[in-house]
Amino acid sequence: MFAVRAALPEFPRTSVDVAGGCGLRQGEVFGLSEDEVDHEGGWLSVSHQLKRIRGKFVFAPPKGGKVRDVPLPPIPILRGRAGTTLQAQDDVRVLSRRRKEERIPLQAVRRVGAEGRALAVELTLPAGTTPVT
After folding, report:
1. pLDDT tens for residues 4-45?
2. Cα-flanking dihedrals φ and ψ of residue 118, to 5°?
3. Is 16 exposed, middle or buried (0-12, 13-18, 19+ CB in 10 A)?
4. Model confidence, pTM
5. Which of 75, 51, 73, 53 is CA-nearest to residue 62?
6. DSSP characters for 78-101?
7. 94 touches 102 (CB < 8 A)
8. Which of 5, 13, 18, 106 has the fewest CB atoms within 10 Å, measured from its CB?
9. Could you tell me which residues come within 8 angstroms of residue 113 by beta carbon, excluding any fewer than 6 positions away?
10. Pairing relation of β-strands 37-38 and 43-46?
């Protein structure tokens, strides 16, 4: 899934996140509308899919008519080796690694970018703050 996501342009990457994170089929992802996502409650309603019938795209019930609600997982922004993840939670980014969790305020993240096979995260400190090492 990560190789497919990395090969896509920025815009459709969200489709891969939703499909993998919520267990949706391709047609269900393409059939989603914004009003089916309950961000506050953390649920997604799967009530139809986009299908191709005789060369035309149409909306239809999900496979087997299985209309359902699925929980929205905390989708990792990044996933590294040995179970390391960086997740979005409200106004913080949570870096989890072996039995340790760091909470990074969103306003402290200046830039995230790839440098070869490594990831560079540049953080900023508010004026008057001393870094903790």
Report:
1. 777 777 767 777 777 877 888 989 998 988 888 887 788 889
2. -105, 165
3. middle
4. 0.54
5. 51
6. EE-GGG-EEEEETTEEEEEETTEE
7. yes
8. 106
9. 119, 120, 122
10. antiparallel
Outline where 1-133 has alpha helix (H): 2-7, 13-22, 26-30
Q: Which two tokens stand for residue 34?
A: 């914004």
* 26, two tokens: 């391709």
Picking from 32, 102, 106, the residue whose alpha carbon sits closest to that of residue 70 is 32
Q: Indicate the residue type of 4.
A: V
- Give the range among 23-27, 89-93, 94-98, 115-119 with minimum mean pLDDT: 115-119
